[in-house]
Each structure stands twice: as structure tokens, then as C-alpha cells.
Design a protein that fits this description.
Layout (H helix, E strand, L loop, with lengths): L18 H21 L4 H8 L3 H17 L1 H11 L1 H19 L5 H30 L4 H9 L1 H33 L1 H7 L17 H19 L6 H10 L2 H8 L8 H13 L5 H12 L4 H26 L8 H18 L6 H30 L4 H30 L3 H86 L1
Helix pairs in contact: 1-3, 1-6, 1-7, 1-8, 1-9, 3-6, 3-18, 4-5, 4-6, 4-18, 5-6, 5-8, 5-9, 6-7, 7-15, 7-17, 8-15, 13-18, 13-19, 14-15, 14-18, 15-17, 16-17, 16-19, 18-19
Length: about 500
């Protein structure tokens, strides 16, 4: 019996087992990565008064943190490809703790930009991408559900952090709160420890010593010898010399697949998401400050974020289940486009909410729309590029998105400072997101049409090749039969010639 064909190869996604423990770890890591930049908005009003800054200046804290979280995506992807998800997440958790503890001793807004924005943001980046990537390695058939459950960590954390931050501020001030939050973020190290890598199958397996096994082993050894003697096989010394001669760009290309920029679906996704993030985070950052601005008390303002988070918590796994259904999954890009446009519509209608009841209704619909988008954010990308290229795709997408993520909240803060009213910020965010959703819907329709056309052409070529192969096989069989029949019919031909000669001789007589 020949040895297994998959010896030394990584096994397929288990779609369960320890994968659900990995989902728990991703739930924690993704929850902190997404919820923490929004949760610290509770402290903005007080920090703004403490340092005497404007809305635009204080908004840079969250913007820099979010932009660093997304912009460091390629670095995170390279580290994951090199070292795996577990050590990267653990190191990211340590950076988060160091950043927030350092922020407790800041004496200027610029120092907050560095400690909270860059250091903590980079730590969150090392939590986000590895968590998303390892889910793709553990799940295939149940991947939308697993992604939905892991993404539910964001609303759960936001629902917890919003009232917790207000409680911490009332009892310890913003400096003491940052110290405690730094300790809480160290739980990311625990989450990273759960990311057990999927081991490859054993490299050497002793097969049963049978005649068939010996023959199979001989064939494999012969094939390997042929490959080694082939001129296309490069010796190890030459490979080392070539790697040493590669420039920086080629080495980076080993970890980031820049050929994705030739992928039609990837480019559509990238353009739509870059536009979407210009208005994605600003409404959450300014929701609590807006409530305080119109006279709502601090705990009620913080509770708006909790309402949003509770609805978001339910929306994400529900969206994952719907997206995994046989009716939606083949056209999941349409569902994603609708979610973005629905999100923008909520922001456009927000200025109509004048009192606390109106803001509660807005928070409910905003939480629903926000959860729908977040649940499909990475699933739609994996649907386009596949699991093999997903690691590179995440890194390239996040670095492209960081520019609009960085500018979104400060632009909203500038509009508030200029007009003295929050409604222009909500209108700007809503219009941008409706535009992004419409763009994605139209371009995904075009992409689906082109994919169907290309698939049809590919099948036609395959049928043509099959027909050509069938004709060639038929001709070869005929030639073989003729060649085989030649020696067998030779005695008969000699007898026929002998009879002809006798007949000719009789006629002459």
C-alpha cells in the first residue's frame, strides 16, 4: 500500500473542535481592536477641557489609533506569515498595555497622540489581523458563522467599556482610568495564547511492506530522481545566492501579494471600502459628545453606546448566519453593499432626532447597520480573493483604508467647530456611505456578470480541448490496431500470394 498523498502537508480546516476555542480568543482580540478606540471617546470631553483643545484636535486621538490599527496591517500580515498568529497577538497585547499605562502620565495632547494613538494603535493592529487570519485557517464551510461570532466581540466590548469607562472616570479620573485600562488590555495576551497553530502532518510515515508498496516507493524515488536531475531544479546553493541578490521590494513581495492589484474584484472592494471608511467611525466617536452637547447627562450619553453595542452584538452573528445561507452566500457582495447604504441612511436621518428618545432609536438602527457591515467586512474579501491570498489582501486593504480612517473623525470635528452643529458631520458621513454602497452594488453587478462570462468561456475551451483529445485518442487507437494486426496477417498474405501464383500457372498450361 502506497504512503498517503498528503504526508507533510498542512491538513484542511477542521471546521470545529479547537477552532471554537480560537473563535473565543478572536472574540476578545477583535473586540478590543474595534471597540477600544470608540470606548475612550467617553473621556474626550474631559480631556478636551483639561488640555484646552478643540473638537478637531481631540478627535485626532481616535483617528491616529484607528489609522495605526489599519495602517499597520501589512506589518502585521508579514509578522503572521513569519512567526504565526499566537506570538504576534501576545506581543500586541503587551504593546497595548504599555501604551495606555504611558498615556496616564502624559502632560500634553501630543504625548497622547503618541502613547494612545501610535503605541496602543499598533498593539491593536497586532491583535486584529492575526485573529481574522487564523479563523480562515480553522474554518471553511462554517467560516461566515465563525467570523460573525468573532466579530461580535466588538459590540460586547463596547457595551462593557462604555459604562465601565464612565465609572472609572467618576472614581479615578482619566489618568487613573488609563492605568486600569492598560491592565485590562493585557488580556489580549491570554487571547493570543489560545491561537494554537494547525500542525502539518508527520513528514515520515512507515508504509506496509508489500509488493505494491515497494513498487509505489520505487516509482516515487524514480520521479524524485528525475526532478532532481531536471535542469529546472535549482540547487540549494544557487537558491541561496539568488535570495541574497533580491532587492527589498522582491522580499516584501514574498509576504504581500501585490498581484492582487490586478484582481478586478479586489480593486472594487478596495475602492468602495476606502470611500466607506471616510464616514464609518466618526458617528460613533461623536455620539456620546453630541448627547452631552444637547444636555443629556453623562451616564445616559454613555448608555447610547451600550444600546448601539447590544443591537450590534445581536446583528453580527445573525448576519453571519444569513450570509452563510444558500440564498445569500453566492451573492454576498450585494448584501454587503446594501448594509453600507443602510448605514449611511441612518446617519442622514440622525439630525431629525432632537431628543433622547430619538437618539435611542438612531442608536438601535445604527447598531443594526454597523453590525451588518462589520460581520461581512472580511468575509466578503475572502469570498473575492480566496483563503490562500487572504493574508496579503488584508494587509494591503488595511494600509489603503488607513488614510480615510485617519481623516474621517477630524473632518467631522472640523465641521462641528466651523458650524457649531453636529448635524453637518452626520450628513457628511451618511452621504459618503450611501455613495460607497451604491458604487459597490453597481460594480459588483458588473463583476458578477464578467465572472459568469469568463466561466462560460472557460467551459467552452475545456469542451473543445476534450473533443480534440478524443479525436487524437481515436486516431492513435486506429494506428495501434493497424500496427498490431500487421504481423498476425502476414502468413495469410503469403498464402494468398501462393494461391495466386498457382492459379496463374494453371491458366498458362
Amino acid at each position: 500500500m502506497s504512503p498517503p498523498a498528503n504526508v507533510g502537508r498542512a491538513p484542511g480546516p477542521p471546521d470545529g473542535g479547537w477552532g471554537w476555542v480560537v473563535v473565543v480568543g478572536a472574540f476578545i482580540s477583535i473586540g478590543f481592536a474595534y471597540a477600544f478606540p470608540k470606548g475612550i471617546a467617553i473621556f474626550f470631553k474631559e480631556i478636551q477641557d483639561f488640555f484646552g483643545t478643540s473638537y478637531g484636535e481631540i478627535a485626532w486621538v481616535s483617528s491616529i489609533m484607528l489609522a495605526t490599527t489599519y495602517g499597520a496591517g501589512p506589518i502585521s500580515s508579514i509578522l503572521v506569515n513569519r512567526y504565526g498568529s499566537r506570538p504576534v497577538v501576545i506581543f500586541g497585547g503587551l504593546l497595548c498595555g504599555i501604551g495606555m499605562v504611558s498615556a496616564a502620565f502624559c502632560t500634553s495632547i501630543l504625548q497622547l497622540y503618541i502613547c494612545v494613538g501610535f503605541i496602543t494603535g499598533f498593539g491593536l493592529a497586532l491583535n486584529l489581523q492575526p485573529s481574522v487570519i487564523i479563523i480562515g485557517k480553522y474554518f471553511l464551510k462554517r467560516r461566515p458563522i465563525a467570523n460573525g461570532l468573532a466579530m461580535a466581540g466588538s459590540p460586547v466590548m463596547l457595551c462593557t467599556l462604555a459604562p465601565l469607562n464612565q465609572f472609572l472616570f467618576d472614581n479615578f479620573g482619566w489618568r487613573g482610568s488609563f492605568l486600569i485600562l492598560g491592565a485590562i488590555l493585557l488580556n489580549c495576551c491570554v487571547a493570543g495564547a489560545l491561537f494554537r497553530p494547525i500542525r502539518a502532518a508527520p513528514a515520515s510515515v512507515k508504509p506496509q511492506v508489500t509488493e505494491e508498496g515497494k513498487d509505489a516507493l520505487k516509482e516515487e524515488v524514480t520521479e524524485e530522481a528525475m526532478e532532481m536531475s531536471s535542469p529546472t531544479n535549482v540547487p540549494m546553493e544557487n537558491k541561496t545566492e539568488e535570495e541574497g541578490g533580491k532587492d527589498c521590494c522582491e522580499k516584501i513581495n514574498q509576504y504581500l501579494d501585490f498581484s492582487l492589484f490586478k484582481h478586478r474584484g479586489f480593486l472594487i472592494y478596495l475602492i468602495g471600502n476606502v470611500l466607506m471608511f471616510l464616514g464609518f467611525f466618526a458617528p460613533i466617536v461623536f455620539l456620546a459628545p453630541y448627547a452631552k452637547h444637547i444636555g443629556i447627562d453623562e451616564y445616559s450619553a454613555a448608555f447610547l453606546l451600550s444600546i448601539l453595542a447590544i443591537v450590534d452584538m445581536i446583528a453580527r452573528p445573525t448576519t453571519g448566519i444569513i450570509a452563510n445561507s444558500k440564498w445569500v452566500r453566492p451573492r454576498i457582495q450585494y448584501f454587503f453593499s446594501f448594509s453600507i447604504a443602510f448605514n449611511g441612511t441612518c446617519h442622514l436621518l440622525c439630525p431629525l432626532a432632537s431628543g433622547y428618545t430619538g437618539l435611542v432609536v438612531y442608536s438601535i438602527f445604527f447598531g443594526l447597520a454597523f453590525g451588518m457591515v462589520c460581520a461581512m467586512l472580511f468575509e466578503t474579501l475572502m469570498d473575492l480573493v480566496g483563503a490562500a491570498r487572504f493574508t496579503s489582501a488584508v494587509g494591503l486593504v488595511t494600509i489603503a483604508e488607513c488614510c480615510t480612517i485617519l481623516l474621517g473623525p477630524p473632518i467631522g470635528g472640523t465641521l462641528i467647530d466651523t458650524f457649531g452643529d453636529y448635524k453637518y458631520m452626520f450628513i457628511k458621513c451618511g452621504a459618503v456611505m450611501v455613495l460607497a454602497g451604491t458604487f459597490l452594488f453597481i460594480m459588483n453587478y458588473y463583476n458578477y456578470r464578467m465572472l459568469a462570462k469568463e466561466e462560460k468561456e472557460r467551459k467552452a475551451k475545456e469542451e473543445d480541448l476534450k473533443s480534440v483529445r478524443t479525436e487524437n485518442e481515436g486516431r492513435n487507437n486506429c494506428n495501434k490496431e493497424t500496427a498490431q494486426e500487421g504481423p498476425e496477417l502476414e502468413p495469410l498474405r503469403e498464402e494468398q500470394e501462393g494461391l495466386k501464383k498457382e492459379v496463374n500457372g494453371t491458366n498458362e498450361v
